[in-house]
Design a protein that fits this description.
The protein is α+β, with helices and mostly antiparallel strands. It is built from 1 helix and 11 strands; from the N terminus they run H-E-E-E-E-E-E-E-E-E-E-E. Strands 1, 2, 3, 4, 6 and 9 form a 6-stranded mixed sheet that branches. The structure holds copper (II) ion (CU).
């Protein structure tokens, strides 16, 4: 009578190749994941890219009725330390105001709220790039190094007039900033 072997059989060579393939895939996926995490950390630390918080809520249907985003508050206000806060409303199909004036070399906080649908904005040549979602305030902190004028288009398709929705950002020397901006009661935008 033939003896039955109880020892495990060695896998055929095909299974060995499968294991090598799996290890290769697992290794490449781990490497890609680490690379992506590295890119996020690098852009965040080196370029100052940060996702906007968007945790602050606001009633988008009543922006014009008063509060932070009422008409008189739109534009730039300069704090005693020289930093600036810019408030902007995004609506179909314009930013209000459509020309922002900001000081060069000073911290600038841009606060946006949408009056209707989802919009987006970026400032050409800077790290400013965010979405403006109705119901939330988008806050971006930045600094503009050199004086000059930059474009600020809406980059989120928001309707048939989307391509016409853009503003300008005029970066000026702090010394030539409109003096009205130091008056907290009045926000300023570019002179017409
Ligand atoms: Cu838009």
């Amino acid at each position: 009578m033939a003896e039955i072997s109880t020892t495990a059989q060695l896998p055929p060579s095909g299974d060995k190749r499968g294991e090598v393939g799996e290890r290769l895939w697992a290794g490449s996926m781990t490497a890609i994941t680490l690379l992506l995490v590295g890119v996020v950390v690098y852009t965040s630390a080196h370029w100052g890219f940060h996702p906007p918080s968007q945790v602050e809520t606001i009633d988008s249907t009543s922006l014009h009725e008063g509060g932070e985003f009422s008409e008189a508050n739109l534009g730039t206000v300069i704090a005693p330390d020289g930093s600036a806060v810019v408030r902007v409303v995004a609506q179909q199909y314009a930013f209000v105001p459509d020309c922002l004036v900001v000081p060069a070399g000073k911290p600038v906080t841009i606060r946006l709220a949408s009056a209707d649908v989802v919009h987006g904005f970026l400032v050409q040549g800077t790290n400013v790039n965010a979405m403006v979602v109705p119901g939330y305030v988008t806050t971006v902190h930045t600094m503009f190094k050199d004086p000059g004028e930059r474009l600020m288009p809406c980059h989120e398709f928001c309707g048939v007039g989307h391509q016409a929705m853009w503003a300008r950002v005029r970066v000026v020397e702090p010394s030539s900033f409109p003096s009205d901006a130091n008056n907290k009661q009045k926000a300023v935008s570019c002179a017409p």
